[in-house]
Amino acid sequence: MLYPTIVWAVEQHYRIGIVAPRIDVVEELGWRIERDFLIEQIRLHGQTTESYGYTQIVISTVQQLLRFYQAFDLLIVDEFDAYPLVDNPVLLYAIQRAVKVTGSLVYLTATLPKRLAPGIQLLTLNKRFHGGKLPLLEVQFCWNWRRYLPSHLKRQLQILDAKQQVLIFVPRVNDLDPLAEKLRAYSKGRVETIHAQAKNRQAVIKAFKTGDIQLLVTTSLLERGVTFPKIDVAIMGAEEALYTKAMLIQIAGRCGRSVGRKDGHVWTYIQTQTIKIKQVNRELRTLNEEE
């Protein structure tokens, strides 16, 4: 959906803005555009070091739009339901201000909010680009995963191929290091952690993409907007309140994102079953059945 829109806009000689709420998503989008299009671009966010200059494509965090006024013929807002954009009147105003009066706004998300602004036309795509289905949450009951590594996860790690990678989500930053230490006893490869305040997070993401890291333990930082081919996912304590339904759907969507592997496992470790978990799987099944 994104690429045909960009191709059309480039052919019209339009100036294109692509924005996202998080730096990591901006870098991911910039990397993809740089790989697939021979068009000059600039990436703008709080860690940008290059000087600003005019380019046909600008890829930035939403906050950077405060620097632009009626600058874009086409403005694409990725993950528009994510923090810090959601319910932020200043950033929503910046979006409206940055697009030309004759320009177009495109909002993208995999988890549609219940309420949309007036005038938005809705287009729903229920299939992934490769035609594969969304993976369901594979529920595994465990007791006190913070103290004991779940037996099911131990078995999966023991039979895991040396080149197979797993992205492991935890609810809180202080869960990262204790879990990573337990995982190192069972991993055949490198184990690392990542969170929003980590200074080396771009290097860690790059190392995971290239396969140098086998197990990456993360907070909700990597719930959306990033693509790692051929991975499995584990969610620790998915019944905890921090995980919303939208977040769990986004996390499940990290699996099966490549033509080479259209499916994947989403091992979901919980101490108690919740209505939320059942609702997520019900919604995923519904999406998989729709044409």
From TrEMBL:
The Helicase C-terminal domain covers 152-291
- Please cite one Gene Ontology biological process associated with this protein: double-strand break repair
What GO molecular functions are on record for this protein? 3'-5' DNA helicase activity; ATP binding; DNA binding
Keyword Plastid belongs to the record: no
Could you list the residue ranges forming a coiled coil in this record?
A: none
Listed A to Z, the keywords are:
ATP-binding, DNA-binding, Helicase, Hydrolase, Nucleotide-binding
State the Pfam families in the record: Helicase_C (PF00271)
Which residue intervals define the domain Helicase ATP-binding in the entry? Answer: 1-130
InterPro entries according to UniProt: Helicase_ATP-bd, Helicase_C-like, P-loop_NTPase
Q: What name does the UniProt record give this protein?
A: Putative ATP-dependent DNA helicase translocase (Putative)
Native source organism of the sequence: Weissella halotolerans DSM 20190
